[in-house]
Specification:
The protein is mainly beta and 105 residues long. It has one domain (2-66, 95-103). It has strands at residues 2-7, 10-15, 19-23, 32-35, 38-42, 47-49, 57-68, 72-78, 83-89, 92-103. The protein is elongated. 15% of the residues are buried.
Amino acid sequence: MYAVIETGGKQYRVRSGQELKVEKINAPDGEIVTIDRVLLLSDDDRTVVGDPYIEGASVKARVVETGKARKVLVFKKKPRKGFKRLRGHRQFFSKIRIEDISFGG
């Protein structure tokens, strides 16, 4: 069984036991969070598509780690103006492990 969930403005296809990095979730490490924004559920014989979300469906995930991703360099330059700017950015992330996918209907 797999599900398509939405978290942090992005969509992810997930299965039970899978680990993935998502935008930072405000929960301490080791805590179980429930994601209610389930867009699609599918198993061997049926597929349920939400409009936009599926009522009664949820995905339970455990926050494994919270940290910062690798640095991304942002360089801006305007030709013939002498304008140059170099900035670095490190995005916060949460690494989660999918524990359970449930569907109530």
